[in-house]
Amino acid sequence: xxxxxxxxxxxxxxxxxxxxxxxxxxxxxxxxxxxxxxxxxxxxxxxxxxxxxxxxxxxxxxxxxxxxxxxxxxxxxxxxxxxxxxxxxxxxxxxxxxxxxxxxxxxxxxxxxxxxxxxxxxxxxxxxxxxxxxxxxxxxxxxx
Length: 144
Fold this sequence. Notes:
5-stranded antiparallel sheet; 3-stranded mixed sheet; 144 residues; 8 strands; Immunoglobulin-like; alpha+beta
């Protein structure tokens, strides 16, 4: 390898390492306390959405935990700066889906970030969005 090739490869490696370190430096954790759990059974499932166009369709991340008391705490780790919205529900029967009645109203407890509510349907991404910066953040969602 010539000196120039070695120098270029070394420089590119350094840039990649710095970029990687910078990305990790801006990664933050979002801690979510879910309250309003009235039945200690099933699991609490959270879905995090990072784009308005994917809201309630394609989650960027998911997490879950057993419903062990009247509230639980879950964490999304390594989030970049940006806007996110979260949907939550308690899966009482363990089927992994938010069950609904005959007219489409959820029959299991559910909630959204900012405790956002919708009119004749779920809230908008705009109503549920939270802004993450380089700092860790804690929010609360109350199940209905």
